[in-house]
Amino acid sequence: MKETYKFCNPHPDKKIVGDCVKRAICLAEGRDYRDVKNDLNRLKRELGLKKFNANENWKTYVERKNYEKLSFPAKSGESRMNGHKFTETHPTGSYILRMSKHLAACVDGVILDTWDCRDKCVYNAYRAR
Hints:
With 129 residues, this protein is of the alpha+beta class. It has helices at 20-29, 33-47, 55-64, 83-89; strands at residues 5-7, 68-71, 94-99, 102-107, 110-113, 122-127.
């Protein structure tokens, strides 16, 4: 059976910190962590925000990239989409997953993160490439 989670920490100093926004974006896009950090900080200043990980900041980032947005609303009588189900139903492609209080990358059916977040609900996914 294919493994659907892989530990991945792109932080340049390999620190485990609250950087899920930068981590998810750079892993889903296949970009350098520092470049994503600089882009998010530039956008934060442009929008007049205090934090790079503010919802408005990262949402504006993905909107400007014209990523396809997939939504998974709750349906009565059905269990919500979670990371496990997402990897099964989206075995190819590169996505940024908006989960409960978290962002994660999913590349070709494998969630890449510093912890196994597959049990978390997935509210939206943004196809990065």
